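S.,

Sequence below, as promised.
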Amino acid sequence: MSDEMISLGARLADLAREKPDAPAVSCGDQTLTYSQFHRRTNRLARGLSALGVKHGDLVTLGLPNSIGFVEACWALWKIGATPQPVSFRLPKAELEAIMALAATPIVIAAFDHAIDKPLVNIDDIAARADDDSDLPDAIAPVSKAPTSGGSTGRPKLILAGQPGVTAKVAPEVGGWQLRADSVALLPAPLYHNAGFGMMMSAINMGAHIVVMPRFDPEKTLAEIERWKATWVYMVPTMMNRVWHLPEETRSRYDLSSLQTLWHLAAPCPPWLKEAFIHWLGGEVIQELYAGTEAQASTVISGTEWLAHRGSVGKVRMGEMIAMSEDGKPLPPGEVGEIYMRRPEGAPPSYKYLGATAKTLPGGWESLGDIGWFDEDGYLYLADRRTDMILVGGSNVYPAEIEAALDEHEAVMSCAVIGIPDDDLGNKIHAIVQVSRPTTEVELRDYLSTRLVTYKQPRTYEFVDEPLRDDAGKVRRSALREARIAALKAPQA
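The prediction came back faster than expected:
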């Protein structure tokens, strides 16, 4: 393979010449070939220029999963601008905070919010130009700028350290185990960093990506069968909803084409992971642990996981270490804060806008996760330090309790938080979305044989709406703040 790098736009132009009639991106009943996708994004790039987008701009993109989302990204890269993806459901206050950080000239979305920037959709952009010929080559200084609310809920932008380039000659098998002949199904949101990065990689490999407008568990299985998908990315929440389908529904679909299923972005309950491994095969199930900041990462296959149950894998890129509270490296088996460091000699992998990294001397950085390494170098995560609950002097990790609750056949989603308590310091409060009427007594009985007493929720709250977003993320800090505020509010 050549080490030569070219712009993302130039790579698409090469693919359009090499495989003009091959499918590039599909959604529903619409498919664009590589030739059509290339020409269409040339036109949209000129439309963006006519709207005032310039080389180096960060452009806020708030579209749902669609061919238009993918088109917008390559159109921006072709003029040297950077996609800055956000949820299409973003509240106005958070949207405005992100727009201010990005200094975006326009917003590509269909928000109902009244904002002080031009709000345009794909048709608006296309209407500004009709020339679909090739453009002068351009490289975006920053390839992507995803957002993160982190544990505080205050948004920040994470600017990728890499410009808008890719390899001129793709390897036979890419980093996500993608190949030029892969059919990659993406039911997860493209605005989230993992889905976004996989979309980029799939197109750069010359694969066929199939985008789902929204996740639906049975529809996902139907799409795998329909397109003979070889590759799929899900978050654990999606895996949980697929597994909660009746067995006769799951077995109705032919999934024999599937070679790789990646899951990341949130903890996967061990019972659920094991179920998928036995269902689809140990070498099909792959997990990656990393941050959007991309200093370092671990990877583990399902087969490895069965021998190291609960691990997120060995470090494959960069370095990771568990540190004590006073910044000292910890031996295997001891829980500490996980610090990461990029490979020696590598340039910075990101830059924050709106936040400051937590660092230690020597280039070590923390994303707030805590965990431990075993003697073989496998990493096991406990939770985020900011989400840990101190109960009567004991550390309790919400993810462990949530994993136990998720195993209950009626639980669709859940979140566990700590509520201040005069006696214990905090009491454990479980917020649960269920698929059928379920009592607190039923859940208490269920957890009584699965969790030690001090880890069991003291109080329960049943809600109607999902507690995790489309990317499988939950903001426990926001849930906790809302409950504490309600407790302090004057009672009528």
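The chain has a mean pLDDT of 92.

Coffee later?
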